[in-house]
Write a structure and sequence with these properties.
Blueprint: E1 18-23, E2 26-30, H1 33-42, E3 46-48, E4 51-54, H2 56-64, E5 68-72, E6 75-77, H3 79-89, H4 93-105, E7 109-112, E8 120-123, E9 136-142, H5 149-161, E10 165-171, E11 177-182
Parallel strand pairs: 1-5, 9-10
Antiparallel strand pairs: 1-2, 2-4, 3-4, 5-6, 7-8, 8-9, 10-11
Helix pairs in contact: 2-3, 2-4
């Protein structure tokens, strides 16, 4: 039996791959036993008109893990093809994907946070969206990016106003991620 590092939580085993379709920037899957089970146990995707809709980072991660196949018409998209499509569709996609993948591999549930003005909401281990609130909002950035104090302050204000902690994920050239948690302190 293969040993897993302590900080990695295993995902539910599914008998079949989730079969999804990429169309107009969206990845949608029928509500099957596999897609429902994965949503219930690990919160991948969001229910959407009797289907499940996946963000591009979720879909790419599931394709890489062998849990999903994504079709575009009659053609199955490989990991590299989906990565190329996503990179064109979303700015800073690879950096966002590196942080998403790293956090998921560590056992955290990561969801988009557009309504908060951030890239991701991150739930503490063992907490599912709907059961409790996210602990952090996360902004992934490349180590070569520049962030002004005004931009940094704005990110911190968003976190504070939503009662979450600010998490900055800095991705280096090797796709390793270093995290910094920032929070307000009263002197």
């Amino acid at each position: 039996m293969e040993k897993k590092p302590k900080d990695i939580i295993s995902e539910p085993e599914i008998q079949e791959k989730i079969s999804a379709e990429y169309c107009d920037g969206k990845v949608l899957a029928e509500a099957t036993n596999a897609s429902r089970d994965f949503y219930e146990k690990s919160r991948y995707g969001e229910p959407f008109q009797k289907k499940f809709q996946y963000s591009l980072v979720e879909a790419l991660y599931l394709v890489e893990r062998g849990k999903m196949q994504v079709m575009q018409g009659k053609k199955e998209l490989s990991f590299d093809q989906l990565l190329k499509i996503a990179g064109k569709a979303e700015a800073n996609f690879f950096v966002r994907y590196a942080t998403f993948k790293d956090m998921r591999n560590r056992g955290y549930i990561v969801k988009t946070a557009l309504k908060f003005g951030a890239d991701f909401r991150v739930y503490d281990r063992g907490v599912k969206p709907g059961d409790d609130h996210a602990k952090w909002i996360m902004y992934p950035i490349s180590e070569s990016d520049v962030c002004s104090w005004y931009e940094f302050s704005a990110k911190n204000r968003v976190a504070h106003s939503t009662r979450k902690r600010l998490l900055i994920g800095i991705v280096d050239e090797e796709s390793d991620v270093t995290y910094y948690e920032i929070k307000w302190t009263r002197p």
